[in-house]
């Protein structure tokens, strides 16, 4: 499965949530509402999740292993930086 499109749908300059992203796989399957978050150790992605119980959240869709998460994160960050630079020009 290959990432065929990454769309940065919303960029926030304020707060910890920096952007909301949609990722398309093989031009056939899309995952919406992946968030780019500014954490203590830099940016990371948070997969779409649903609240369950008292303040607990469970991912609705997520990579199965760290290698896939890293590849996905790298492609998301690359597109995020490109869109961010285009907005600054």
Describe the structure.
Helices cover 26% and strands 47% of the residues. The chain is of the alpha+beta class. The protein has one domain: Arylsulfatase, C-terminal domain. The protein has a four-stranded antiparallel beta sheet, with helices on one face. Strands 5-6 form a two-stranded antiparallel sheet. β5 (49-52) and β6 form a beta hairpin. The model has no long low-confidence stretch (mean pLDDT 92).
Sum this structure up briefly.
This protein is α+β, with helices and mostly antiparallel strands and 89 residues long.
Notable traits:
6 strands, 1 helix, two-stranded antiparallel sheet, 47% strand, alpha+beta, Arylsulfatase, C-terminal domain, 4-stranded antiparallel beta sheet
How do the helices and strands line up, and which of them pair or pack?
Elements: E1 3-11, E2 17-25, E3 29-39, E4 42-46, E5 49-52, E6 56-59, H1 66-88
Overall pLDDT: 92
> How large, in whole angstroms, is the Cα Rg?
13 Å
* CA-CA gap between termini: 34 Å
Instruction: Determine the strand fraction and express it as a percent band.
Output: over 45%
The CATH topology corresponds to Arylsulfatase, C-terminal domain
Strand line-up in the sheet with most strands: 1-2-3-4
Tally of strands? 6
Content-based structural category: alpha+beta
Q: How many structurally independent domains?
A: 1
Task: Work out the helicity level.
Answer: 25-40%
**SSE order:** EEEEEEH
The outline comes out as globular
Low-confidence stretches: none
How many helix segments? Answer: 1
CATH class: Alpha Beta
CATH superfamily annotation: Stage V sporulation protein G
Largest beta-sheet characterization: 4 strands, antiparallel
